[in-house]
Amino acid sequence: RIFYISLILGVFMRNAKVNRKTKETDISCEINIDGTGQNEISTGIGFFYDMLVIFSHHSLIDLTLKARGDTHVDFHHTVEDTAYVLAEAINKSIGEKRGIKRYGFFYITMDESLSRTVIDFSGRPDLVWKVNLGLKKIGEMDTELFHELFKAFSNESKSNLHIENY
Question: What SS3 string covers 108-135?
Answer without folding.
Answer: EEECCEEEEEEEECCCCCEEEEECCCCC
